[in-house]
Amino acid sequence: MDWQWFRTQLLTWYGEYGRDLPWRPTADPYAVLVSEFMLQQTQVMTVIPYYQRWLKQLPTLADCAQAQRQDIFKLWEGLGYYRRAEYLHQTCQMIMYNYGGNIPQELAILITLPGIGRTTAGGILSHAFNLPLPILDGNVQRVLSRLFALTTPPNRNQKQLWHYSQALLDPDQPGRFNQALMDVGAGVCLPKVPHCGRCPWQNGCMGEQTQQQHTLPVREPAKEIPHRTIGVGVIWNAQGQVLIDQRPSTGLLANLWEFPGGKVEPGESVPDCIRREIQEELALDIRVGAHLITVNHRYTHLRVTLVVHHGFYQSGIPELRGCQAYAWVELRDLSEYPFPQANHKIIQALATSPSPPWPLEMAEGRVQSE
Ligand SMILES: Nc1nc2c([nH]c(=O)n2[C@H]2C[C@H](O)[C@@H](COP(=O)(O)OP(=O)(O)OP(=O)(O)O)O2)c(=O)[nH]1
Ligand SMILES: [Mg+2]
């Protein structure tokens, strides 16, 4: 295989068509680290404003290490996969306290840090330190599967894919090479419609030569995503504040705030579910009132239908039974807390209903879907 041909083709193409992205010109390893975390599972266009805001508020690794958890989550809100925010925070703290504030330049060490897998480590080391380490995210897996006509589904073919990513990599300009490879994946070798006519590797692509560019990579049949109906209560107290709680530090949507509630059990009505959940999670007695909104939302591994009712505090002192913290807050202060994506519609519905004191039971229910 003439690896040099692939390198020259790609880097020449990149010089002309490479994207102008805010993290590309930087030589600051911390800025590269932030960009790599944000780009895990998230598209470039979505990441850009988050990246810029993050570096404005936390310009150095030390700033990030010392930041409050709450501020970290707030800066990440809306970007999804919130685990990444927590890992990035922890990683910066570990680099600060265990490695004197310098990002370790050894792959074997770097991948021991929270949230850093081989691809993220390769991205950081090649970009920030120009070390010859390959990457293999979803886009790269697709490009390589086509380029070498690999007919095994990528999730069962990791070893071979890593091998190709390493073999192709330009040892002199690994940072540029990896960036260019990502641009091919994001702009040319697209999942549904590969633009082979614009590809720097067209003449060397075994997938195209065998007319498999539309069928590769081979996908394994997708699993059904389970669906759950969730009863959710917006509980009001006599001061016109509403009750929110912070989800546990592990599991789905860890550390985010929510309106208390949970899964409706078989045969249970939604109001019964809300009463039970608030008893189970916070040990409070409430009365359930009018329906506020129903929101359908799809997370990566779960689809939920949130059936939201108003509710009224009756009695009890909150106990933290299934959550980390709780707070009674004014409606206008809700925006200070990081919530799951699906909650924006709930908060919007609250903002457009009349403010308390008002006959809460009379509130009109509205149904809204995806
Ligand atoms: N309670 C609640 N759940 C929400 C909100 N927003 C949101 O996306 N959800 C999602 C997160 C979860 O996938 C689901 C709630 O399920 P859960 O995991 O809390 O269920 P649960 O209380 O029955 O807990 P468990 O018995 O499974 O531990 O709904 C919200 O404001 N309140
Ligand atoms: Mg719950």
Helix content: 40-55%
End-to-end span in angstroms?
Answer: 49 Å
Which CATH first-tier class of the largest domain would you pick? Alpha Beta
- What structural category characterises the helix and strand content? alpha/beta
Shape: elongated
Q: What is the average per-residue confidence, as pLDDT, rounded to a whole number?
A: 93
* Ligands bound to this protein structure: 8-OXO-2'-deoxyguanosine-5'-triphosphate, magnesium ion
Low-pLDDT residue intervals, each spanning 5 or more residues = 360-370
Here the CATH topology of the largest domain equals: Nucleoside Triphosphate Pyrophosphohydrolase
Specify the CATH architecture of the largest domain.
Answer: Alpha-Beta Complex
Relevant CATH superfamily of the largest domain = Nucleoside Triphosphate Pyrophosphohydrolase
For the largest sheet, list the strands in their spatial order: 4-1-6-5-8
Q: Please give the largest β-sheet.
A: 5 strands, mixed
Rg from C-alpha positions?
25 Å
Instruction: Report strand %.
Output: 5-15%
Domain Nudix hydrolase: 225-354
Binding site for 8-oxo-dGTP: 247, 258-261, 343
Cofactor: Mg(2+); [4Fe-4S] cluster
Protein name: Adenine DNA glycosylase
